[in-house]
């Protein structure tokens, strides 16, 4: 007889987290005319995405989303210890795009996804306070509004491969294939030319 608990059998565990960076407010002005050219770097583990740059504002609106695959067990106490500290953190770094030199740090928010998941909320929409870099004096840096939603993708690799073969190529896919075949044609014709040797 199985000792598996019914709750364990029916427990829902997400495979991905979808992050939507909606807007910012009260951000520091680092550009001309008391504004900034603002973008956000969104990171989970080693994977990063970036929003577009919204120019001349301290209250940008992005409404951009990305999805991260979660490490197996990273949201659960038993599995979390198998990974380096911070592996389940969503890190949002807000930056000012500088025309010359390095981009300027505006603030950072760290959202522990394991704690959000433990609250049993599949989707959370909140304003998160931006903080200074670790070890630096804390200043008022504004806030960023983010939606965090956990999802589960049950599609296996073999199912994905089979479904991908039957799908028609997008316009970009067709262009990419044409460029590939053009490069191959150019390479073949270039290799057929043999330089003459003068005597």
From TrEMBL:
Pfam families: C2. Keywords: Endosome. Residues 1-128 form the C2 domain. It is found in: Recycling endosome. GO terms for molecular function: small GTPase binding. It comes from the Eukaryota. SUPFAM superfamilies: C2 domain (Calcium/lipid-binding domain, CaLB) (SSF49562). One of its GO terms (biological process) is regulated exocytosis. Residues 176-199 are annotated as: Disordered. InterPro entries: C2_dom (IPR000008), C2_domain_sf (IPR035892), FIP_classI (IPR037789). One of its GO terms (cellular component) is mitochondrion. The keyword Ubl conjugation does not apply. This is C2 domain-containing protein. It comes from Anguilla anguilla (European freshwater eel).
């Amino acid at each position: 007889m199985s000792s598996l608990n019914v709750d364990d059998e029916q427990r829902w565990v997400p495979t991905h987290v979808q992050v939507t960076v909606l807007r910012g407010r009260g951000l520091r002005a680092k550009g001309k005319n008391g504004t900034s050219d603002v973008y956000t770097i969104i990171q989970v583990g080693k994977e990063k995405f970036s929003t577009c740059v919204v120019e001349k504002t301290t209250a940008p609106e992005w409404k951009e989303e990305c999805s991260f695959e979660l490490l197996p067990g990273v949201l659960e106490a038993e599995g979390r210890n198998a990974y380096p500290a911070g592996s389940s953190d969503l890190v949002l770094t807000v930056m000012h795009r500088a025309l010359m030199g390095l981009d300027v740090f505006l603030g950072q928010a760290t959202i522990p996804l394991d704690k959000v998941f433990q609250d049993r909320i599949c989707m959370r929409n909140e304003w998160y306070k931006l903080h200074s870099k670790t070890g630096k004096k804390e200043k008022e840096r504004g806030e960023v509004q983010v939606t965090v939603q956990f999802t589960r993708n049950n599609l296996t690799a073999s199912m994905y491969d089979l479904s991908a073969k039957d799908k028609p190529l997008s316009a970009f896919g067709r262009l990419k294939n044409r460029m590939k075949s053009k490069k191959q044609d150019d390479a073949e014709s270039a290799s057929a030319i043999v330089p003459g040797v003068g005597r």
